[in-house]
Amino acid sequence: MVGAALIFKSLRLPVLEALALVAVTLHALNHAILKGGLFLGAGSVQVATGSRDMDRMGGLWRRMRWTAPAFFVVATGLAGVPPLNGFQSEWLGLMVLLQSHLLHDPAVRLAMAAAAALLALTFALAVTAYIRIIGGVFLGAGRSREAQHALEVPFTMRVATGLLAVTAIALGLLPPLGIGAAAAAAQQVSGAPGVLDSVLPPVFLHPDRFALPVKLGGTFLSQVIPANGLIVVPTSADFSSIAPTYIFISMAVVIAIVALLLRLGGPRPRQTRQVWAGAIPHWEPSMQYTATGFTNPLRFIFGTVYRSTRHIEGDYQQAPFFARTVRYQHTFIEPVEEYLYGPVVRAAQKVSRQLGIFQSGNVSLYLLYLFAVFVIALFLR
Fold first, then answer.
1. In this predicted model, which residue has the larger pLDDT, 274 or 317?
2. Predicted pLDDT at 96
């Protein structure tokens, strides 16, 4: 987005420059809230289970009734699921890149179109990854004793994660909150006037100028929310627009209608069946799809980068294609952690050990340090 803003600035398109800055500022704000909530939620899971191994988790939704919904909100927000705030900024960023149709340079148009395609691919991967995190950690059955006996974290930890989740919901359902702050910052940088009205048009104030949004119910909450409107418009309503608040209301109404129809149909008898485990007599929670299974194809494809090795041992005493037991071991190296963070951490630890001689715990030595600093300060003065 910053690159798109610089391109629009060089082409003297201040409105599009401001729009790109609004998108990147709003995205940074949303990610600060969502990733903060995700880290707090991950910390809560670690406290509850005593482990960071996702393969040993599962079924925590029933054990952590407060943390699980908050984690679900921030994870789906980062995945860009509407109508949460993550979707709002991601959609706005995509619309900024699609504004390349207004440019005349074919090379710039092609580059921005390629960036839009990569951005859309990133959104798809994010949805897959974060939804899989929710499924592997909170749904299904517990794959370890720690997960099966996990307890909800203390009240303060629940409140911290919950506040960020509520903030994410508020920013998603009420666009003026986040876009207002982002538009103010973008206007200061770009100098373009009326940035807020360009992104969040005053539908509530001037409904006669926005015929299409008004026909779609764009003034439904005009007496409730004192703001321009609730419809996000990147430069032109004819190009595209979105109303997260109305999307949420529509989804809630549809869900309520479906739930009502199901209740009118009367109660249905509950049927319990044994879980099919691929012709294996007994199903175990460890047979569920795990984080290792999800990431294994990537580690296999990029095996050269991760230097991954696999070792599989099977007990085929019954038949050549039916293993009684399988032992699987997989090792790999994280390149960034091993070759970037690792040397920095080891160097910092080495320096800390060498400087540790100055922290002997001797009060007399500390007083000598203070005296030396005092003398040096007098000479420098």
1. 274
2. 84
* Token pair of 226 as six digits: 């004192």
Instruction: Give the pLDDT confidence of 112-129 residue by residue, as tens digits.
Output: 888 888 888 888 888 888
For the chain, how are helix, strand and coil distributed in percent, rounded to 5? 65, 5, 30
Give the whole-angstrom CA distance, residue 189 versus residue 200: 18
Closest CA to 130 of 169, 180, 176, 72: 72
Burial class, 207, CB count within 10 angstroms (exposed 0-12 / middle 13-18 / buried 19+): middle
Please say whether the dihedral angle defined by the alpha carbons of residues 52, 58, 62 and 63, taken in this order, is positive or negative.
negative
Say how far apart CA 247 and CA 84 lie, in whole Å. Answer: 10
Q: Is 25 helix (H, G, I), strand (E, B) or coil?
A: helix
How far is residue 45 from each of residues 42, 145, 155, 331, measured CA to CA in Å? Answer: 5, 14, 14, 25
Three-class SS state of 314: strand
Helix (H, G, I), strand (E, B) or coil at 331: strand
Identify whether the C-beta of residue 309 lies closer than 8 Å to the C-beta of residue 300. no
Measured from the Cβ of residue 265, the count of other Cβ atoms closer than 10 Å reads 8
pTM beyond 0.85, yes or no: no
CA pair distance 180, 171, nearest whole angstrom: 10
Nearest CA to 97 out of 293, 240, 252, 243 is that of 240
Residue 95 · residue 184 · CB < 8 Å: no
> Encoding tokens for residue 265?
């149909």
Q: What single-letter DSSP state applies at residue 348?
A: H
- Indicate the DSSP class of residue 193: T
Q: Please state, in angstroms and as integers, the Cα–Cα distance from residue 211 to each residue in 206, 224, 231, following that order.
A: 10, 20, 13
How much is the CA Rg of the chain, to the nearest whole Å?
Answer: 28
> What's the token pair of residue 63?
């054990």
